[in-house]
Amino acid sequence: MTALEVTLSGADVLLPDVGLSRANLTIADGQVQQDPAGPQVDLSGYTVLPGIVDLHGDGFERHIAPRRGAMKQMDEGILSVEAELAANGITTAVLAQFYSWEGGVRGPAFASQVFDAIAAVKGSVVTDLIPQLRFETHMLDDYAGLPERIARWQVPYVVFNDHLPHGRLAQSRTPPRLTGQALKAGRSPETHLEMLQTMHARRGEVPAALEVLCSDLADLGIRLGSHDDATAEARAWWRARGVSVAEFPETLDAAEAARTAGDYIILGSPNVVRGGSHKGNASALDLIAMGLCDALASDYHYPSPRRAALMLTKSGLLDLAGAWALISSGPAKVLGLTDRGALAPGKRADLVILNAENHRVVATMAGGRVSYMSGDIAARFIT
Q1: d(CA 271, CA 300)
Q2: pLDDT digits (tens, 9 = 90+) for 138-197
Q3: CA distances from 146 to 140, 151, 202, 214 (A)
């Protein structure tokens, strides 16, 4: 695929070690270049920023399973996802797919379809799509052969969840939303409850099984993360097993434990935009103010990373460079992607162009190729 060769002029560009500055930016051969090349495009009135790297997002579910039913052509759903990602300035996206006892669009069979669809379209899309597996730790019967399946699905990133309602199950009480969950999974409420009770009863077997699984995945070079750590002890347990990414820690104690040990801390950008967690967990704003955040992720809402970075800047909590790093260079570092996250010579030409007045996304490029362009800016490139 052909990348643009062009010099962008007249815009305010976020440059490393400089900050926002009126500067020319040349892209060619899919990278940011040191020397001018190609035709010059006047971008006066616009702001050019590094492309957004989204570490964790499951907002794609509505594209591939509208109205509770999977699309017949899953590939088309992934293409629709890419369009939304690009329209929100996202140039690298981790698509977080559940592998869960919840079944339906979060069940193992559906996960396999999603990963196959991502692999099928990966070579024909502009946005870099990275699959992530969110594995429910108490699915003990699914451990056998899981590393091999993950390798076959070309999944480089696995995160561990435990969403079992242990409190209710320990009290022999019916979990909330049981009937709705069961119907989505295609089970009777009685069968679904029995399955939950069985997994809860076998919880003592989970740590040993996870020891082996984490070791096997690490041997494959898989990046490992834990989801919703609630205590410092939980974070330490995961770290001891090579799980170095803490996604959405629920408490200050868990986040501080991660920072002290040098683990990566990922927070949800909707938490920033909302001004707090919708579940009553630790406030992302508070954690960011304390330096307990390496990256912000879209979580369930793709417009939120950009909005969160701009809100952090407007509030004065961070300058633009620091805020934007949480959605560009920060997440790139977590993923080990040293070729992106900053508009520097030799880096991938991943960038998002905003209208300087209202901060809306008007164009997105990944690897020097246009993934999104809308409105009057298109005329500037055409002419």
Answers
A1: 11
A2: 999 999 999 999 999 999 999 999 999 999 999 999 998 899 889 888 899 999 999 999
A3: 11, 9, 19, 11
How would you list the strands of the sheet with 40-42, edge to edge?
31-33, 25-28, 6-9, 40-42
Query: Which phi and psi (to 5°) does residue 370 adopt?
Result: -75, 125
Model confidence pLDDT, tens digit, residues 212-225: 999 999 999 999 99
Long-range CB pairs of 260-264 (<8 Å, 24+ gap) are: 261/235, 261/236, 263/235, 263/239, 264/225, 264/294, 264/295, 264/333, 264/334
Query: Which positions ≥6 away from 185 have C-beta within 8 Å?
Result: 101, 102, 103, 104, 107, 192
> In the chain, what is the straight-line distance between the N-terminal and C-terminal CA atoms, in Å?
22
Angle between helices 189-201 and 178-185 in degrees, nearest 10? 100
Beta bridge partners of 6: 27
